[in-house]
Design the sequence.
């Protein structure tokens, strides 16, 4: 399956290579660099590149290309999904997945890659198993290891791989038993010029941080499970139970994991938390353009809209923008033509606005494209779909765990066309 | 600081001479700059007897390998450490060994004995890792050793080692393909493995070594289907892809009877005749595959979702394919690479099955932040989805896209509009007008693209659109983009007959500006003049001469050549050859209109989700997706003999047990080694199930059992035989009783007697006393909430039995028992007594001791679900009303095929009432039988209706607010009706 892996940084250097079968010369990456050159933007490099003898499948994360070399037919998503899993694992281990972090921990990276694939076929990709095999480096452990000469490799061979609950390690012990669940929803929407919603949907996830002793068996039920249109589960969730009773029943992995992602697509259910009044215009013949933007809360169920950030890619002809924000700060990058306005919190009494003029290239004709406005925001303590967790029960262990649940709404791909 | 250095010294201070900075991070920049000269001290460090130094050295060497630096000269020094005690050093040596063994074959052999020793280690994980490294060393000379090791590991006790063996198979195969036959034997053996751990890996090996040996799958097909949900994600992908291919060779096309509107008529007729010959019935195994893969659409792994989607696309009946759309649309939220692949596949699917994605049209709307390659693919999908009803929305959406800053995307949008216009006649004019407006765009690319598209559109119906050609002719005054000018001139030339007045005028203007035009425009001017000369030589003769003269002296030789060539061709002279006669035919031949079609058309002959599909070219190792067979091959090949029973307890899987979490019990009886992984799980889970006590296991078991029984006839047979086999094993008495119960409960109830007896105490265990019980279905007078159980005692022993009574009743909470009065003495053969048990509407068993004056026997009574209710009388209207209130989750519907003996109303009624204590509800239609009852304890209504259709097909509906009761009742009735 996966023959080799090359990590390529933003400047086009291969800084790590790993081979699972016989060695493939790194010159195979030249085809990748060619494709990279042809693509104007980094994200436009095609994920699958055929070369005379190999196929290159790559993903771009954290400005690093992970280029997998394969030799024969394999589902491309299989490789892509695996590469993303590799990145997630690195992030889990080192906190960040940057070139520096990988270089600093090159030995751990190598050990991880060795365990994750055998002969190019995924072997252990569950973070709980990997952490038993190879302990994540912490400052304390690095210190201790240098002094005592002990190692990062687990002395105990992991048993997780052998059980039917491979995602949970055995013998977990905590003094404080706690289970936290974050319900995070993102609104994806396209709003048209006149302010009406073209498409809107909610993408939600439930991320969990479970630190419970032993082998707890949890059930989580919702007040309104029918809201969930489409769901995908962590493998620990018992599917039949969900089908029959709409209850999430699972033996959780230890630590952080994504329990569930869901989708609410029915348009009338999607509340749009903010509205935008905009007037962006260029006049023919003059080198000036008007820019006028006002934000206001719409359907927020009384909660405050926070961390609002507005960004817009202005037309190429714009040389500079001279704007006046009623609150927050704005920046305009004259090279990328990216305008960002950090608004902060929206005060319904005094609506934030950004007004002023844009100067255009002298003599150039009026740009015929209209910029789109991207909005980011956060609303605490509310899931915009109205999803509510009813209760969480634990079976199988005697102690009483501490349970917590948090709701949050964010804007996902929230675009306003002008 | 001082403390730490003191500690160092005490430890024997590995801060030795060669390495002054002890805390030096092995991976930090330093070592990268230091390469070859340092190799000497690396060797020294490796030779030292301190593990910490060795580790340090190995870390540096691994860092070198990672950077792609050559570290092969250290091979002898490294390989010595293969037997090192320190586990991390050992692992890093393995890494090194696997990387360089190929280059240093002789030296690598030194390490082999270490692994051979490891293969015999009592620890399964060490055995596995030894095999893993041994098989990764690509040295041909050890092929026999590897073969032996794999064979041995394939019959290892531990499933983990067997998994490793499966992984080793493709490695050995790539090293020496001559071993294929032997490896196939191993694969065959491993395919029969019952554990989820092995399944994925061995199918992977199968796919790499012998994908053509589809016959190996037959016997394992059902097992693979059943295990699928618990296999790890990566294995699922491989298995699903393989099973797709398998199903294509073994089952019939489920869509054969459907009128596939995309298919041509000939095929339709063919299909129709075929359909007449034989009505399509889906093979139960085909159904099994579809049913067992469907839940995986909910996987978090995009590759698994895609695999299921392609399986449904290639195998499912048309009506059922729709389910995959939602899951695929969900994947569009994922990383852009995932989106890219998914959209490619969606694009192919939308051509054949447009309807299924239509509801999700808006999910494919484009955001300005999408990368261009995603935008273009989304556009492709939107174009494929366009039809008469949604075209106006789509066109409105396209209008916004045209204003995008991303010009490549705008160009693609214009192409898309062109395709919409060709496909949907109603909007052709609107599209044309829109495109004509775009001709005034400032962007060259946009204009060029528009002109090209307009040109293609006009070619389809030139006579209707002479006004557009006129309009474009006017545009020549304003448009400066050479490509667009050239295209317009070509159009006018081509259709000069439709614009006879304008064409010469345009030529006149062009002749005037000829010298200032770009080269491509000049070429088209020459073309135009030639065509006009041929059609309208009277008006244009002079103009043409003029243009050709200008061209004769042009700087560009291409233009000079063209002018010379055209002059020879069109202007008749003595020298001109035979060709000039045909000049008109050459220039004004009818040119076929270009076909605007999706690049994704016909891509579906590749298996979706595959690399070959994505590239639209066959990749190495791609296995063709076979066409459906004309007639189904013998389905009995998939039947499994009892001896090699695959429906072992091992298939009672984690996810299956969903409804009831603890699953203690059954595995402990099964002594087989294959279940060891489950054993460990049940061990860990039994803690959770302990509160449920032993009796809980029965209900679990029975539920699992009955569930499996639906799956197929064979499984049923097997299950029973299995249970019987188990009986022979020495098991604890109580367990044995439980099994006895199960056996009895499961057997079909003989229709003649309404109440059937179950054994409570066997003659042998009871030392002569045998006890049977039955549910008399009489109301239990002392307490209405109890189920009456009639107990019958038989004494065949020589000695007499006295003081028969109950003791030590153990019940689940909420359950109650009304004991039968003590039977002091009895004479003769038999005695009966009636007791009452309140089962609390559950199938939990009531356990108690049966005591005589000398002995005590542990016994238990477990009710079939049908006995937990009592009949009530409802009128037809009441029934309908109540049924209307018990919809949604409270309603369970199953389709079934009635047993051949059970096709008339009378037998149906008899069988249902035997299976459950219900009364018949009058019904107007003779196609439907209705029954009603209430659960004994809570009085919840239980409504059952059986609707019969043609040829034994029937639909069973159970409405009950107690969902567990409902589910179990469905199973019981289903069993009663199908057997």
Sequence:
């Amino acid at each position: 399956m996966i023959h080799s892996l090359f990590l390529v940084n933003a400047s086009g250097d291969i800084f790590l290579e790993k081979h699972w079968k016989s060695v493939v010369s790194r010159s195979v990456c030249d085809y990748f660099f060619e494709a990279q050159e042809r693509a104007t933007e980094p994200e436009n490099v095609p994920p699958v590149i055929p070369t005379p003898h190999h196929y290159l499948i790559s993903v771009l994360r954290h400005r690093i290309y992970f280029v997998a070399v394969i030799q024969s037919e394999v589902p491309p998503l299989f490789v892509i999904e695996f590469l993303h899993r590799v990145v997630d694992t690195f992030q889990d281990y080192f906190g960040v997945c940057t070139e520096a972090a990988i270089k600093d921990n090159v030995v751990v990276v190598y050990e991880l890659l060795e365990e994750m694939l055998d002969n190019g076929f995924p072997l252990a990709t569950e973070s709980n198993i990997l952490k038993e095999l190879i302990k994540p480096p912490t400052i304390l452990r690095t210190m201790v290891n240098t002094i005592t000469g002990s190692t990062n490799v687990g002395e105990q061979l992991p048993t997780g791989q052998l059980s039917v609950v491979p995602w949970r390690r055995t013998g977990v012990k905590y003094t404080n038993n706690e289970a936290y669940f974050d319900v995070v929803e993102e609104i994806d929407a396209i709003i048209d010029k006149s302010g009406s919603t073209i498409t809107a949907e909610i993408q939600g996830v439930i991320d969990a941080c479970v630190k419970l002793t032993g082998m707890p068996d949890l059930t989580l039920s919702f007040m309104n499970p029918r809201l969930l249109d489409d769901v995908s589960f962590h493998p620990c969730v018992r599917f039949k139970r969900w089908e029959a009773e709409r209850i999430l029943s699972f033996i959780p992995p230890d630590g952080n994991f994504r329990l569930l992602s869901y989708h609410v697509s029915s348009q009338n259910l999607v509340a749009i938390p903010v509205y935008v009044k905009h007037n962006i215009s260029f006049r023919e013949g003059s080198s000036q353009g008007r820019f006028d933007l006002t934000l206001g809360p719409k359907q927020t169920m009384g909660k405050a809209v926070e961390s609002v950030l507005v960004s817009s890619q202005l037309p190429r002809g714009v040389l500079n923008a001279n704007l006046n924000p009623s609150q927050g700060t704005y920046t305009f990058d004259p090279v990328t033509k990216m305008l960002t306005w950090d608004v902060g919190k929206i005060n319904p009494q005094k609506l934030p606005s950004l007004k002023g003029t844009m100067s255009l290239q002298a003599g150039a004709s009026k740009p015929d494209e209209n910029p789109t406005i991207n909005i980011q925001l956060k609303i605490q303590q509310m899931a915009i779909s109205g999803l509510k967790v009813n209760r969480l029960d634990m079976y199988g262990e005697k102690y009483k765990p501490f349970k917590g649940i948090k709701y949050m709404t964010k804007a996902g791909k929230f675009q306003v066309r002008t | 600081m001082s403390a730490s250095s003191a500690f160092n010294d005490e430890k024997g201070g590995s801060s030795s001479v060669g390495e002054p900075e002890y805390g030096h991070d092995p991976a930090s920049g330093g070592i990268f700059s230091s390469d070859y000269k340092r190799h000497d001290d690396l060797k020294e460090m490796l030779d030292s007897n301190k593990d910490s130094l060795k580790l340090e050295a190995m870390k540096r060497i691994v860092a070198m390998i990672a950077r792609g630096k050559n570290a092969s000269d250290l091979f002898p020094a490294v390989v010595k450490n293969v037997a090192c005690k320190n586990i991390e050093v050992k692992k890093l040596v393995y890494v090194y060994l696997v990387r360089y063994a190929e280059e240093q074959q002789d030296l690598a052999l030194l390490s082999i004995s270490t692994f051979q020793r490891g293969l015999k280690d009592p620890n399964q994980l060490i055995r596995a890792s030894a095999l893993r490294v041994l098989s990764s060393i690509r040295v041909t000379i050890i092929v026999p050793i590897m073969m032996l090791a794999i064979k041995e590991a394939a019959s290892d006790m531990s499933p983990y080692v067997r998994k490793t063996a499966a992984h080793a198979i493709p490695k050995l195969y790539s090293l020496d393909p001559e071993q294929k036959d032997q490896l196939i034997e191993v694969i065959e053996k491993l395919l029969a493995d019952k554990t989820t751990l092995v399944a994925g890996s061995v199918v992977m090996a199968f796919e790499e070594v012998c994908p053509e040996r589809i016959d190996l799958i037959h016997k394992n097909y059902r097992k693979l289907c059943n295990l699928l949900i618990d296999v790890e994600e990566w294995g699922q992908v491989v298995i699903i892809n393989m099973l797709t291919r398998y199903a294509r060779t073994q089952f019939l096309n489920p869509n054969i009877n459907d009128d596939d509107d995309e298919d041509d008529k000939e095929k339709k007729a063919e299909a129709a005749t075929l359909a007449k010959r034989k009505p399509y019935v889906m093979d139960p195994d085909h159904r099994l595959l579809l049913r067992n893969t469907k839940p995986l659409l909910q996987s978090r792994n995009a590759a698994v979702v895609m695999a299921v989607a392609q399986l449904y696309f290639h195998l499912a009946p048309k009506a059922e394919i729709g389910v995959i759309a939602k899951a695929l649309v969900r994947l569009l939220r994922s990383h852009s690479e995932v989106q890219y692949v998914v959209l490619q596949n969606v694009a192919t699917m939308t051509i054949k099955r447009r309807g299924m994605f239509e509801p999700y049209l808006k999910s494919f709307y484009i955001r300005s932040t999408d990368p261009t390659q995603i935008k273009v693919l989304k556009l492709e999908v939107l174009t494929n989805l366009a039809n008469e009803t949604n075209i106006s929305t789509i066109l409105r959406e396209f209008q916004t896209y045209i204003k995008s800053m991303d010009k490549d995307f705008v160009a693609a949008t214009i192409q898309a509009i062109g395709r919409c216009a060709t496909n949907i006649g109603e909007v052709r004019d609107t599209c044309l007008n829109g495109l004509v407006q775009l001709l005034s765009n400032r962007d060259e690319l946009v204009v060029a693209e528009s002109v090209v598209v307009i040109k293609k559109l006009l070619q389809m119906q030139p006579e209707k659109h002479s006004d557009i050609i006129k309009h474009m002719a006017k545009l020549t005054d304003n448009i400066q983009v050479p490509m667009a000018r050239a295209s317009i001139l070509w159009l006018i030339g081509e259709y000069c007959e439709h614009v006879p007045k304008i064409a010469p005028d345009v030529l006149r203007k062009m002749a005037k500006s000829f010298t200032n035009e770009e080269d491509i425009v000049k070429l088209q001017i020459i073309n135009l003049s030639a065509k006009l000369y041929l059609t309208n030589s009277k008006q244009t003769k002079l103009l043409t001469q003029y243009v050709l003269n200008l061209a004769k002296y042009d700087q560009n030789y291409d233009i000079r050549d063209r002018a010379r060539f055209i002059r020879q061709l069109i202007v008749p002279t003595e020298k001109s050859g035979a060709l000039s006669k045909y000049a008109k035919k050459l220039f004004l031949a009818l040119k076929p209109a270009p076909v605007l079609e999706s690049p994704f058309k016909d891509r579906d002959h590749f298996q979706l989700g595959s690399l070959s599909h994505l590239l639209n070219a066959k990749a190495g190792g791609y296995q063709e997706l076979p066409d459906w067979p004309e007639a189904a091959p013998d389905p009995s090949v998939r039947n499994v003999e009892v001896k090699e029973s695959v429906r072992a307890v091992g298939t009672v899987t984690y996810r299956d047990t969903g409804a009831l979490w603890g699953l203690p019990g059954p595995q402990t009886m099964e002594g087989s080694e294959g279940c060891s992984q489950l054993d460990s799980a049940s061990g860990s889970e039994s803690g959770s199930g302990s509160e449920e006590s032993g009796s809980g296991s029965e209900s679990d078991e029975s539920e699992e059992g009955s569930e499996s029984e639906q799956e197929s006839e064979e499984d049923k047979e097997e299950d029973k035989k299995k249970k019987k086999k188990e009986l022979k094993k020495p098991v604890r008495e109580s367990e044995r009783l439980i099994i006895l119960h199960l056996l009895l409960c499961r057997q079909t109830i003989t229709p003649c007697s309404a109440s059937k007896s179950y054994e409570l105490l066997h003659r042998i265990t009871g030392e002569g006393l045998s006890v049977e019980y039955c549910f008399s279905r009489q109301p239990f007078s002392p307490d209405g909430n109890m189920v009456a159980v009639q107990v019958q005692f038989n004494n065949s022993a020589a000695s007499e039995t006295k003081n028969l009574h109950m003791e030590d009743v153990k019940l689940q909470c909420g359950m109650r028992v009304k004991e039968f009065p003590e039977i002091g003495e009895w004479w003769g053969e038999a005695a009966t007594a009636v007791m009452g048990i309140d089962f609390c509407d559950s199938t939990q068993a009531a356990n108690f001791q049966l005591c005589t004056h000398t002995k005590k026997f542990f016994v238990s009574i477990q009710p079939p679900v049908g006995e937990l209710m009592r009949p009530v009388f409802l009128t037809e209207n009441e029934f309908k009303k109540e049924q209307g209130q018990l919809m949604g989750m409270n309603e369970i519907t199953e389709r079934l095929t009635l047993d051949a003996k059970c096709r008339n109303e009378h037998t149906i009624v008899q069988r249902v009432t035997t299976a459950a204590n219900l009364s018949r509800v009058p019904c107007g239609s003779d196609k439907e039988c209705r029954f009603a009852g209430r659960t004994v304890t809570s009085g919840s209504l239980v409504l059952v209706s059986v609707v019969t259709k043609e040829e034994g097909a029937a639909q069973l509906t159970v409405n009950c607010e107690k969902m567990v009761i409902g589910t179990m009742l469905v199973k019981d009735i289903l069993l009663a009706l199908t057997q």
Summary: Chain B has a mean pLDDT of 77. Chain B touches chain A through 132 residues (CB under 8 Å).
